[in-house]
Amino acid sequence: xxxxxxxxxxxxxxxxxxxxxxxxxxxxxxxxxxxxxxxxxxxxxxxxxxxxxxxxxxxxxxxxxxxxxxxxxxxxxxxxxxxxxxxxxxxxxxxxxxxxxxxxxxxxxxxxxxxxxxxxxxxxxxxxxxxxxxxxxxxxxxxxxxxxxxxxxxxxxxxxxxxxxxxxxxxxxxxxxxxxxxxxxxxxxxxxxxxxxxxxxxxxxxxxxxxxxxxxxxxxxxxxxxxxxxxxxxxxxxxxxxxxxxxxxxxxxxxxxxxxxxxxxxxxxxxxxxxxxxxxxxxxxxxxxxxxxxxxxxxxxxxxxxxxxxxxxxxxxxxxxxxxxxxxxxxxxxxxxxxxxxxxxxxxxxxxxxxxxxxxxxxxxxxxxxxxxxxxxxxxxxxxxxxxxxxxxxxxxxxxxxxxxxxxxxxxxxxxxxxxxxxxxxxxxxxxxxxxxxxxxxxxxxxxxxxxxxxxxxxxxxxxxxxxxxxxxxxxxxxxxxxxxxxxxxxxxxxxxxxxxxxxxxxxxxxxxxxxxxxxxxxxxxxxxxxxxxxxxxxxxxxxxxxxxxxxxxxxxxxxxxxxxxxxxxxxxxxxxxxxxxxxxxxxxxxxxxxxxxxxxxxxxxxxxxxxxxxxxxxxxxxxxxxxxxxxxxxxxxxxxxxxxxxxxxxxxxxxxxxxxxxxxxxxxxxxxxxxxxxxxxxxxxxxxxxxxxxxxxxxxxxxxxxxxxxxxxxxxxxxxxxxxxxxxxxxxxxxxxxxxxxxxxxxxxxxxxxxxxxxxxxxxxxxxxxxxxxxxxxxxxxxxxxxxxxxxxxxxxxxxxxxxxxxxxxxxxxxxxxxxxxxxxxxxxxxxxxxxxxxxxxxxxxxxxxxxxxxxxxxxxxxxxxxxxxxxxxxxxxxxxxxxxxxxxxxxxxxxxxxxxxxxxxxxxxxxxxxxxxxxxxxxxxxxxxxxxxxxxxxxxxxxxxxxxxxxxxxxxxxxxxxxxxxxxxxxxxxxxxxxxxxxxxxxxxxxxxxxxxxxxxxxxxxxxxxxxxxxxxxxxxxxxxxxxxxxxxxxxxxxxxxxxxxxxxxxxxxxxxxxxxxx
Length: 1065
Known about the structure:
46 strands, 28% strand, disordered N terminus
């Protein structure tokens, strides 16, 4: 990476990652996606398929899940590596206990090193088949996109019966001795489906809630269609009439584009395909045919009314949506995707195993033993040692309801390396760094999907074979297919439905040994399906190999160094308590022997989530500062050095802001736990054992706080003896090893400040107006960073972005119309065409800059997390004076709102200089500033190689709203900009004049007091020239200007630095 790219990356690091928080309440309510009404699970009153999670690479996700069902449940993110956060994986009985009814579990993890299409779902019993499932999308902001639209399509089987009833019926040996799986009633596309109400039986059914899923695309547009099979049982054959499908992603792995006609997508698999709307405008049928009959289900015939042909509509924009679709020619020999033909874009060679690595044979079949009341699946795992298969286990996965989750058992045990996992978990222990091969053998007549948690594996081979010894062991290791969910082929059948004996031949089967390295298996005697998978044990944890369950204990030594999170431990206590008394109310909390308000628990949970979010942001800032300080001595280019220095200063500014807000939150947390003041008494009932007099030392809330906040992993605000952030100075305390020593941040700090002051004298970074702040003050570089400033900036940027996106769309339409009229496919034949095209490019650039700026402030938005309480334990006081607010206590700054009234008068502006501008296309390129009023160019500075201009302008304005200052690189490339309402400027000047007037009329003692207090940043930016200020530029940099405005409309005149309203004659 070049020095410039590295510097830019460091300066962007603090805004690239953000904390994304979701607060979910799982409920059970009536839904009828296919017209049949049934109870189903959802999130916050919405179906799961309407509850997506969208994040970017590097984001910290905080997912708070409150279970309002009658059963325990849990949440798993399918395909996420959870590297370093194994307790967040979600499978009940494996990494956690189920979340008891009325309880909350906070999943907190970082999406690092992964992007693409994933999904979330319940991972207890069969809850996800009741609707607890939805998309989880990880965006890569740096991706080079070959598409303009991004659409998610969830393909789902749907049952009218509750999953518990389905499972009980399936396991009932008397009524289902053959072990036939329950067949779905219909299929859904993004929650849309149709069922024939004539077969609804005792269910309420209405065609009014039935419809096809419709996707509207602009003609000639390219869309990334993210296909996710969220089914419990069904696979789909997917196609769109008249349109090719170009595969670009499989299970989160980008692949070289591969075009097919149809895609088979199994349970839990994901594909991204590019679809180009290049056909005649109309409505085209989307087909998602659900597999039935062998080799997929035992049932060759479907129950009456079952809909196996799910459809949707691809609608071309401009054409009315209709179920009457375009007729297209049938493809005689359609190309159906073979995933083994896909080649990952990022070439990663599969490692070759050594003698210390592991080869595992995983066999499964469905059968009915003598002791069984019904047919069930049996699995067998054997490891290869000394050219023989040594059996590890033979069983059917059947944990008891009160079993300790395997991960928790491994962490809590005192036997060290001698710990043995419970037999029911079907465990295989692997060591860190091992190369693991899984040979999956399928002796069943149905295909089966398998998913490995926390890993993406190489698929080295798959097919059918008549003996284990005949499975190939010589593979192409140069960039083979990688994915996390594989379909293992079914065992070949004869015409009667039986499995073909191994002595017979099968087209495409491996009937002879190709490599003598594998011994035969115990069940060799018939043909079977197989797949060979390889992964590296580089992620310590307890991970399921699900489909038919096996559990990997990965790096037990590392696991036993972990500390069990207190919320994980408490979740198990809650779960065990629920088992003893399933009918207990979730409205009260009896786990600590006292009555504790759910309001207080919710308040502490919310505080912990916000504290965690701020700590993540602080860690990012610390890393940014360390990286920039290591980079700084190697920089020789003055411009790059200035940018790097500014990155450190700005990061320190953000760090101070975040630490201040963390300080307030920890104080708030302490108040809730210890009751140091009585303002929050309403959160705790004043009866029973928690009377007001005992509130000071109540142990129940303290223990709840430890449960919620994870005592032992960070210190509580009420107890500063353990590691973490101290509640008094908000910095890492001695109890925890801090990977970012304080000296890394303080080193050379004074030198940097001095060098930056040599360019232009700057106000202290934390200076701000103690008395009155208008909206305009939030535009100044030196106004303190507060939640109010962040929210103001976000609001202004979002408003500006919305306007500029509309301008861009209008300009694009104008350009297309002109191009069609002039009929000039290449080059410009008319100056107006070129002018509009250049305008379009600038519009796009401006939109991109504003999006970057939005991301910058979004990462600092703490969602009103810290406005409730101050570090001193007191609330701030505000005194209202007519049109502005004066602060009398410490609190986030309140601003005077200027409104959006148009202004007329004369604008006096002096543009002095710019600093720390975003990287230019050419390092030495000259820059200049353009002044625009309501989008019209009014003035332009001279060009400067050193970003110093010193140009003055007097600009008459008539009923104008907005002033825009745009910094360009020579050649017309927009670098950065600032904008504000003229009314905001006029208000700021008015308030400053009033403040000056108050000082003049005050007594000498008051004047002296006011002069020695902190003064507005506007008056400190250029001490030698009153009124010079630094304005923030977006998405980066700052601009020194001197502004004044003389209003004529309304006869507002400036007299002796005081604005006076003069009546019209």
